[in-house]
Design a protein that fits this description.
The protein has no helices and 6 strands. The protein has strands at 2-8, 14-21, 26-31, 36-41, 46-49, 54-56. A 6-stranded antiparallel beta sheet has the order 1-2-3-4-5-6, with no helix packed on it.
Length: 68
Amino acid sequence: MLKIEYIRNGTNRVIGSRTIDTENQITVARDSDGRIIGSANSKFNTTRDASGTLVSRNTADVGLLFRK
């Protein structure tokens, strides 16, 4: 099942979204323009940016991909 959540900054402005696939334990992060900025895998506990570079190998948190 897919679930979409919006990510907001400190001023309550939407800066992106994340789409969660609960079956495969994968989360895809998109910026406010809809471009994919990375993904997180809860099964392997990793976070990768859009180019596939490993951002974190010990946490599956797409919040690390937002730098605003």
